[in-house]
Amino acid sequence: MRFYERQPRFGWHRGMLMEDVTMQVSFLKDLATMRDATSRYTFVSYLQEKGRIAEFINSKTLYPLRVEFHDYLEWAAHRFRSHVTYGTEVTAVRPVTEDGVVTHVDVVARPASGGPETVVQRARNVVIGLGLTPHLPEGVRETERVWHSSGLMHRTRDLAYAPRDFVVVGSGQSAAEAAGYLHGTFPDATVHTVLSRYGYSVADDSPFANGVFDPEAVDRFFAAPDDAKRRLLDYHGNTNYAVVDLDLSQELYRRSYQEKVLGRQRLRMLNTSRVTSVDEHADGVRVVVESTTSDEVRTLDADAVVYATGYRPSDPAPLLRELLPECKRDERGRLDVARDFRVTTSDAVRCGIYVHGASTEHSHGLSAGLLSTTAVRSGEIADSLTRR
C-alpha cells in the first residue's frame, strides 16, 4: 500500500525555527512508544542505534533537542521508504462503482512540482490526513515583504538586502520563535512584536492538564455530549493554542530587559495592540499599529512583516467531492466521523473512507492533530480495517 499526502508548506506547527532549543515532547510520548513500548521504532531504540542512550540519560531531561527529534523522525521514516511516495499531491479521490455500489476508490496523484504525469491507484480503503494550512487575517496576502511565519526560514535566507526593521504579528509559539530567531539572526535589526495581550501567555503543560492528550481521553471526549466537548476544548485550548513555552518566554523577557539596561532596545514589545493597516512600497512596508487600551497610534517603517497568525485544519471535502453526496454530516455541516475515524456513509458506499488529524478535533479532542499520537491513531485505523 502506498500512502500519499499533500506536501505541507511548513514544518513544525509549534516551533519550527530554532534548532538549539529543546523539543517540548517527552521521549516517553514519541510516536511509537504510545502505541507499543516494545516497538523497534521508539525514540529509545533510535538512541540505542545511534550510540547516545547513556549520554541522553546523563542529560537528565525528558526533552530531546528539536534537531535530534527531527533526526529521529527521519530515522523512523527511512524504514518505510519503500511504502511511501513523497513529493506527490493527491488531486482527487474518485468512486469506483459496481452494480450501483461504491466498492473501491481511485486515488489520483501528480508530482507536487507540477509535472504533467498522473498516477492512479485503486484502493479498497483510503485514509486522509491533510494536516494544517497557514492562516492570514482577512484582507492580508503574502508578498515579497509580507510573510506568514511558515515561510520565514526560506524568506530570510533569500534576502537581497540587509534588514533593519521587522514587525512580527502574533502572540503564540510561532510568533515568539519568529521574534527570537530574527532578533538573534540579524544583530543590527530591530524587531517589533505586536501582541493583542500584555505579553506571551505560557502553555499549560502541567501533568493533570496533559491528561487531555492521553489515548484514553479520546474515548471519553468522543462519547461526551456536544456542549461538554465545547467546554473541554475551551478549558484546555491553552495546552496547545496561542501559547508559548515558559523557557522561551523567559528568554525573550531577559533579552528585552538586558537591552533596556544597555540602552539599545532592539526587541520591542507593543502589547495590547493590533495592526490596522499594512502598506507595501518599493523600499519596505509601512505598518500602522493601534493600541486597544488607549487612543495611541504608531506608524512603523519595516523591511518585512511576519504574520505568525497560526493555521487552520485543511478541509478534506475538496478531495472527496465526488463522494460527498454519500457522506453523512453533522448539524454543523462537518463530516460525520466514527470513533475509528471512518466517515459515516450511506449504504451505497462499501469501501472505507477514513479522515484523521486536526479536522477531527471537534469529534476526537485536542489530541486529534498531535504528532505524538499519530501512531495510536494509525493503530486504531489499522485495527478498523482488519475488523471490517
What's the structural blueprint in terms of helices and strands?
Elements: H1 43-50, H2 53-58, H3 66-78, E1 88-98, E2 101-111, E3 119-123, E4 125-128, E5 132-134, E6 146-148, H4 152-157, E7 165-169, H5 173-185, E8 190-194, H6 215-223, H7 226-236, H8 246-262, E9 267-270, E10 273-281, E11 284-291, E12 297-302, E13 304-307, E14 311-313, E15 352-355, H9 361-364, H10 374-387
Parallel strand pairs: 4-15, 6-13, 7-8, 7-13, 8-9
Antiparallel strand pairs: 1-2, 2-3, 5-14, 10-11, 11-12
Task: Please tell me about this protein's structure.
- The structure is a single chain.
- It is globular and about 75 Å long.
- Helix content is 26%, strand content 22%.
- The chain has 2 domains: 1-133 and 312-388, FAD/NAD(P)-binding domain, CATH 3.50.50.60; 136-202 and 241-309, FAD/NAD(P)-binding domain, CATH 3.50.50.60.
- The chain contains 10 helices and 15 strands.
- The protein has a 5-stranded parallel sheet. Strands 1-2-3 form a 3-stranded antiparallel sheet, with no helix packed on it.
- Helix 5 (173-185) links the parallel strand 7 and strand 8 (190-194).
- The protein has helices spanning 43-50, 53-58, 66-78, 152-157, 173-185, 215-223, 226-236, 246-262, 361-364, 374-387, and strands at residues 88-98, 101-111, 119-123, 125-128, 132-134, 146-148, 165-169, 190-194, 267-270, 273-281, 284-291, 297-302, 304-307, 311-313, 352-355.
- It has 388 residues and is α/β, with parallel strands linked by helices.
- The model is unreliable at 1-28 (pLDDT under 50).
